[in-house]
Amino acid sequence: ALPIRWPVVQATAWRNANGSVCYALANLSDNSQTIGLEATSNGMTGSVRLARIDSDGRQVVHEETQLPHTVTLALKPWQMCCVEQTRQGF
Q1: What is the mean pLDDT of each run of 10 residues along the chain (90 residues)?
Q2: 3-state SS string for the chain
Q3: Radius of gyration of the chain, Cα coordinates, nearest whole angstrom
């Protein structure tokens, strides 16, 4: 069997009933990785807030921004985080 090549940072996204979007990311390597996550409209209009959620807490990355917007994320080896995208006022 040949080895299967796959990106060391894996990601997925989902939207909840109120329209907020969560991007979940995981660095599946022994090395730190820096990636650019492009937050897209996903049906949202107007300004949005982007917040990074790590196991040790939440940090607002952008309080008010327009989409699409690329967020630069640094991930330590084997680190996971989420980025929450919410409409202003939610």
Answers
A1: 84 93 96 96 91 93 93 97 88
A2: CCCCCCCCEEEEEEECCCCCEEEEEEECCCCCEEEEEEECCCCCCCCEEEEEEECCEEEEEEEEECCCEEEEEEECCCCEEEEEEEECCC
A3: 14
User: Which one, of 71, 33, 79, lies nearest residue 50 by Cα?
Assistant: 71
Which structure tokens are listed for 51? Answer: 């917040």
First to last CA, the chain: 50
The residue type at 89: G
Instruction: Quickly tell me which residue has 């921004």 as its tokens.
Output: 65
Q: How far apart are CA 47 and CA 57, in angstroms?
A: 23
pLDDT of residue 14: 95
Burial letters 49-68, b for 16+ CB under 10 A, else e:
bbbbeeeeeeeebbeebebe
**Is this prediction's pTM over 0.90?**
no
